[in-house]
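2024-03-11 09:14:02 INFO worker-7 job=invfold-0412 stage=load source=structure_tokens
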């Protein structure tokens, strides 16, 4: 199990989750090209510290991810093997507003 960041985080990237993560497994805040933060599934220790501090309720335990955000689970795993494909999928699910 890991934690997933879903659509409400896109283009927000508040960073509160990064501040509380004891193992620094959340990435993307310092990268202007990223539209969302990413939790590394191989580094996450499932402590849940990030979940309650998210101001937009975008972080979920994988098995508790609401149905409308299920696509974000695979995107998170894919990011750590193919960043470009994961970013393209984010853009597909939530197009950049003009």
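2024-03-11 09:14:09 INFO worker-7 stage=emit residues=98
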């Amino acid at each position: 199990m890991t934690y997933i960041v879903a659509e409400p985080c896109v283009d927000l990237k508040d960073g509160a989750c990064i501040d509380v993560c004891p193992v620094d497994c959340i990435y993307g805040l310092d990268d202007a090209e990223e539209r969302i933060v990413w939790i590394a599934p191989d580094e996450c220790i499932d402590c849940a510290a990030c979940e309650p501090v998210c101001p937009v309720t975008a972080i979920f335990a994988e098995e508790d991810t609401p149905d409308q955000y299920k696509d974000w689970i695979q995107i998170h795993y894919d990011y750590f093997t193919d960043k470009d494909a994961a970013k393209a999928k984010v853009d597909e699910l939530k197009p950049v507003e003009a």
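2024-03-11 09:14:09 INFO worker-7 stage=report msg="The two ends are 36 Å apart (CA to CA)."
2024-03-11 09:14:10 INFO worker-7 job finished
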